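Usage

Read records sequentially. Each one opens with the input sequence:
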Amino acid sequence: MAAVKNGRVLVVDDETDVLFAMKMLLKAEVKEVVTEKNPENLMRLLDKERFDVIFLDMNFKSALHTGNEGIYWLSRIREKDPNATVILITAYGDVELAVRSLKEGAYDFIVKPWHNDKLLETLHHALESKQLKQKGQAAKLKTDNAIPILGESDAIREVLYKIDKIAPTEANVLILGENGTGKELVARALHQKSFRADKPFVSVDVGALTDSLFESELFGYKKGAFTDAKEDRIGRFEAANGGTLFLDEIGNISLPMQAKLLTVLQNRQVTPLGSNQPIPVDIRLITATNAPIYQLAAQNQFRKDLIYRINTVEILLPPLRERGADVELLAQHFAAYYAPKNHKAIPAFDPATLKKLRQHAWPGNIRELQHAVERAIIMAEGNVLQPQDFSFSAMEFDAPQTTPAGALVFDQQMPLSEIERETIRRVIEKNKGNISKSAKELGLTRTALYRRLNKHEI
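and closes with the structure output:
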């Protein structure tokens, strides 16, 4: 975590609003944020100062918006410092050019308008990776908020053993586990320990894609393929070419989309919408789901031949309630992370608190523990976390309280925003993560539900 807090970041963009937004977002995360509007000043700035990460726009007002300026300045930065860590800022339509920039030496790219959590995740990965390279260590695996794979229980040791065995192969991997168990973290671990580690890792929440968007997002499209297709765009398969493609919530895609995905996996080529020319792709496929995929297959809701294709090897992630003392280890790790972030000393845990945490069922798993620890640190009065600092809502118990009619029961003093958040969480849990069913039950569209998920950081 010191690598993040002590980092010095440079942001180069000709839009004042972007520079201001980036500085406000990053100033609490790193030691210093320097902004620069004119890329012509880059070389002089780099002569005088050292930066751990450079955010570089791909387009500037001094030229046509081709993205080539970003590539040019990236090459100039790399000439001056071959070890420079550069993250490109690109418009949505420039993703193909941004992927090319990875081959030119960029560490990663973010797309405008960005999601703050994803931008911070990218920054944390970059800073940690740079620190580890400086120490001559292998890349250390991180997930959201720079969380490593932690655990000493037999259950998690088996997972880590499988990762070490499977990662150096080309086997397709299916990761199974409840919500919040760390499926994307395992996917990143498999990529980082593979021979494709220096190639792109592309993550897609396919459960969030409607049937109409599925093909254009995954396979790309040609200009004029449909009304809003104003230019060519590569899909996620092409973006991941040479690297790893992670498809999350694979159990929630429709049968027609399963058939299209199966065809691509069998042929190892994609055909963009509006084109008749197939494009070969070389990807290592990792998928994940919290849905009962074998039960769905037995009910003819998921294709058995697709299951055979995606699960050459299977990794089952244990729920937190089955990981014993790992609860204590993870709680202390989150405390060490969130205390400095909230300008507090790292707290100790009262023995009674640890007992309470071990006895809780954690239906939301690691994600729930993470939020519980952060909330406790913010609300605690002293520097020793007491049992009363951890309060679990009805949503966070295995058997939530309900009225006889099945209505949700919450503390009457709970704020309306918290009631909305807990209602959404409980409905999603009830529907085993199926967003479509949850949206229907809540009387929302999928888009509206995703907005609320983002709003409440669920």
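Summary fields computed downstream for this record:
- The chain is about 45% helix and 15% strand.
- Residues 135-147, 394-413 have pLDDT under 50 and may be disordered.
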